[in-house]
């Protein structure tokens, strides 16, 4: 088995951490042994899944339509008792705004908003650490080795050997006899 993070071949399939980078290999063993399927114990619970913007918009529209049943009678009671001359205008306008506004909100959500839920960092922090989602995070602490700052760089060995002339390699090709001309 090879480490999915650094590519180091492991000594056996029973090791829990990569010997080179410290990546946790326990989940990788389980996925490989189950034929590529992630077992349910490693899957996050579906109850914590956030709603998509589309679902939120449809819920908001439905709540606005249902609020018509509460808002319109309250406005009717208030305007009939306090503002009787304009009650016949305010009550139908409130009903129209609530009901049509809810329908427009549902229509906007269905046509314009994304159906995939957006995950934020707060929800990920509550789920616990997972190396499968964040491969840059190591299971072992960083190495505490002292770096040698005064070390000279490696020489470029390709520049050490210089061919004697530019045409030498091409003249060698001409010196060889072609077997077709014989």
What does this protein look like?
With 182 residues, the protein is mainly α. Among the domains are: 1-43, no CATH class; 48-112. 43% of the residues lie in helices and 0% in strands. It is built from five helices and no strands. It has helices at residues 26-33, 53-82, 87-112, 121-127, 168-175. The mean pLDDT is 75.
Keywords for this structure?
182 residues, mainly alpha, 5 helices
Radius of gyration: 35 Å
* Total of helices: 5
Q: Gap between N and C termini, in Å?
A: 56 Å
Structural class computed from helices and strand pairing: mainly alpha
Task: Give me a quick take on this structure.
43% of the residues lie in helices and 0% in strands. Helix 2 (53-82) packs antiparallel against helix 3 (87-112).
Secondary structure elements and pairings:
Layout: H1 26-33, H2 53-82, H3 87-112, H4 121-127, H5 168-175
């Amino acid at each position: 088995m090879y480490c999915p993070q650094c590519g180091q071949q492991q000594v056996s399939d029973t090791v829990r951490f990569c010997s080179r980078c410290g990546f946790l290999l326990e989940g990788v063993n389980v996925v490989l042994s189950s034929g590529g399927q992630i077992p349910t114990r490693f899957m996050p619970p579906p109850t914590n899944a956030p709603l998509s913007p589309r679902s939120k918009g449809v819920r908001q529209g439905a709540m606005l339509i249902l609020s018509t049943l509460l808002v319109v009678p309250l406005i009717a009671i208030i305007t009939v008792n306090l503002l009787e001359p304009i009650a016949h205008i305010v009550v139908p306008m409130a009903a129209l705004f609530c009901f049509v506004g809810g329908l427009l909100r549902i229509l906007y959500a269905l046509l314009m908003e994304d159906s995939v839920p957006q995950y934020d960092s707060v929800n990920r922090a509550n789920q616990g650490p997972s190396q499968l989602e964040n491969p840059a995070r190591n299971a072992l602490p960083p190495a505490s080795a002292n770096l040698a700052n005064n070390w000279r760089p490696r020489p470029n060995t390709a520049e050490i050997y210089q061919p004697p002339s530019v045409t030498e390699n091409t003249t060698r090709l001409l010196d060889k006899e072609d077997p077709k001309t014989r």
